[in-house]
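Allow me, if you will, to draw on your knowledge of protein folds for a short while. I have a record of one protein: its chain in single-letter code and its fold written as C-alpha cells. The full record is reproduced below for your convenience:
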Amino acid sequence: MKLFLRYTIFLTLCFYLIFAGLVQATIVIEGDTVRVDTANYIVHFEKGEINHIHNKLTAKTYTIFPEASKRGWTGLMFTRYFWDSSPTRSATLVSTSQASPNRVELVYGQDGTEIRLNIMIDTVTDDMLIDMEGVSDSGGVVGVQWGIGYLDIANLKVIVPVSGGRVYDHTDKFQSDTYPGSGRGWEAQLAIVQGDAGGFYVRNTDTMLEYKQVIFDPLRGGGGAALNFATQNQAPFDSHTSGQTRLWRFNTYVGDWRVPALIYRDWMAEAFEVTPLSEKNDWVEDITLFVKTGLSGDFTGYNYLEDFTVMIDRLAQLVDPDKTMVYLGGWKIGGSDWWVHEEDIAHPDFIPKEALAEFLAVTRKHGFRTILYITAHGCSPNHPLYESVFKQYQYRDTWTGELVGENLEGPTVHPIHPLMNISPASSEFRSYVLTQLKAVWDEYDIDGFFIDASHSVMNNATGLIEGLSTAQGMALLHQEMIDMMPGAVLGGERLHEATFVHESFAQRPLFGDKPRRHPISSFLFSPFVHAVDLAPHWYEDTPEHYQRVLLHGDVYDIMPTINVFKAHQLEDDDPEIGIIAMADHWQGGGGLQPDVNGDGQVNVFDLVIIVQNFGAQPLMNLKVDVNGDGRVNMLDLIVVSNWIEEPTVPR
C-alpha cells in the first residue's frame, strides 16, 4: 500500500510539473497581435513581425517604439532585395487557428499570395519556434523571411559568425550575409543579440545546408534596427511559386554571448557528427605553424632542389618540424597555383612534377608534415573536357544566371590564367578530380591536401545537379576524399558548416575593422578545425607587422603562416629570421605572455617593467621578452599595449 501511495504521489507530481510548464508557456492571439509568454521571455508579434522582446531572466526589454524606428520584415521574397516583395504588414489576416496553448497559425493573403506563419513553443527547451510557408500565383519566388523590428540598437550588439566573427551595432549600415558562406558569408546558423547581463539568440537546426540570409537593417541616422532571417529557394528562381523555412528557434539567456554560442556549438558537433581535433589522429592537434612554399616560379640559373634542400635544412634548425606543416604549391605539371606566371595550365589535371618525390624526401627527413595545394572547383577553359563535359556544371550567378569563373575577361597580373568554376555537386567532376588525387596519395609520402576555394558554395543558378546543391556537393567532395584516402588530412580556404566536418585546417582572415571583429567563429569552430592565417607573411614583412599578426592570432586562436621560397630568406641577417624566431617561441608554448609581473592582469604596471628592461642583455627576467625574439624593445611594449585594449578571449 505504501509503495502504491508513493507511486501515485510521484505520478501526480510529474503531472503537476508538466502541467505547470504548459501553463507557464502560452501563446495568445488578439486580432493581428500574437503574445508569447514563457518562463524565459515575452515576445509580441504585430502583423507577422516581432515588435517586442522582454527577457525575464534579466528583466531587460530589447525593443523600443520611437516615432521613427525600423520594423522587421516578414513575407515572400520575389527579388534580391526584400523591400521589393510581399510583406505581411500590408496583407490581410485571412484566418487564425490555435491547435494548443503552445501553437498558433496565422494566414495572410495579398495580391495572389498566401503566407502561413506558425508560432510554437518547445516546452522542453523553452525555445520559440517559427515556421513559415508562402505560395504565389506567379513564379519568381526567392524564398520567405521573418523579422524582428524596433531593436534598441544603441544598447545592443548583434554578434554573428560572419567573416571570422563580426559585431553589428548602431554605427553599421545595412548588412546581408548568406549561409553557408565565408568572406562576406554567414558561417553558422546563429545570431546573438547581446545586451546588459544577457540577450537573445536565433538559430536554425538545418543540416541540409539550405541557403539562408541574416539581414541587419538599421535605421539611417540612428534609432532602431531590424534583424531579419530568410530562407532561399534553390536558384534559378523563375519557376518557384512557393517557399518555406526550416524551423527557426528563438530564446533568451543570461550571461555573455558564450552561453548561446556553447548551446549552438554542442548542437553543431552532434548534428554534423564532427570529430574534435584531439581525436582525428595523433599529431594534427600539435601543429602550430604553417610554412607556405612551392615548386613554382622562375628559378632559371641554379639548382632549385639544392636550394630547397638548404632552405628546409635551415628551417628545421629554426622551428620544431614536428609542429610545422609545410604547405606545398606548384607541385603538379603546369603549376598547381593557377594564378602564377607559368606555362598554360590544365585544371583539374593533377599530374605531379617528376621531382616531387625528391622534394618530399627533403621535408620528410626532418619530420615536417606536408600538405599539397589543389583547387576545389577549377577547370581551365582549354581543358579537353571543359566544353564537352564540365561546362554544363559550371557555376552560374545566383541572380543574373551568368557563368562564373576567374579572369574571364583576359590576362591580368593576378590572376594570370582564366579558370572556370565547376560545381562539385557533379559526380563526373568529383570522380575526375578524386581519381587523380587518389593516385598521388597512393604514390607519394604526403599527409593530405589543401583545398583552395573550398568555401565557394554559392546558390548556383545552374540548379541542383543530381539532386545536390553546390554546398552539398562541396561537403560530399570532402567526405569522398576522406573515404578514398583514409588518414588524409584536409585543409581549406575559409570555413563554414559545409566544410568544417572533414577539414583539420582552415585559412581565416586576420585583419579587419578592429571595432567590428569578434571571436565567435573561433569559439564555434576551434575545437574541430585549426584556424590558419589567411594572409601568409613574406620575408619582406617587418617584425613589427608580424607581431601584430601573432597578437591577433593569440586572441582569435589563429596560427601564423609564413612564406619561405628561397634559402637566402633564412640567412642570419635576413628580416625573416626575426619573424621565424617569434614563430618558434610561439611553437614552444610561449605564445604571447603580456602579464609580465604575473598579477593576473595586463595593465600599465607591465608596461613599466618592460621599459625598465629595454636593451637588457642578458635578460634577468625572461617574461619581459614578450614576443620571444631575444631582446626587449618597443615590440614588446606594443604587444602589452594592444593587449590592454583587446584582451584574450577564453576558448
